[in-house]
Amino acid sequence: MMRLLGFGLLIGLLSGVPALAGPVVARIDLSSQTMRVSVDGAQRYVWRVSTGKPGYRTPTGTFRPYRLARTYYSRKYDNAPMPNSIFFLGGYAIHGTYKTGSLGRAVSHGCVRLAPGNAATLYSLVQKHGLGNSRVIVTN
What we know:
The chain is of the alpha+beta class and 140 residues long. The chain has two helices and nine strands. It has helices at 2-15, 116-129, and strands at 24-29, 34-39, 42-48, 61-63, 67-69, 85-89, 92-96, 112-114, 134-139. A five-stranded mixed β-sheet has the order 3-2-1-9-4, covered by helices on one side. Strands 5-6-7-8 form a four-stranded mixed β-sheet, covered by helices on one side. 30% of the residues are buried.
């Protein structure tokens, strides 16, 4: 059993896909300001995003979302709307933005912003498959 588990972890590392990743995986690439969403191992979407601007980083790593909020307003940044929020680390979330002209550029305070319709789609996928079966992977 341990040998199989070790083999699965090795395959995951070599393929760039963490072993035991959930059915819904949102991969955010900070350098290209894009998100690729896979469901059950098949890529379904590629979207432009906005992440942390200079002085405000978006954390890198692999995270399990821990909270969903269909309607949320930032307590830290002037009650800014954050529709379809998926919180993945502290106050960091993936959420919709109405400033869609900024997508594709690093302009946020660290959150990952998406077009409202794309945020709603991702929110629904995570809600359907469950927080424990979803992953957020942020890379440079």
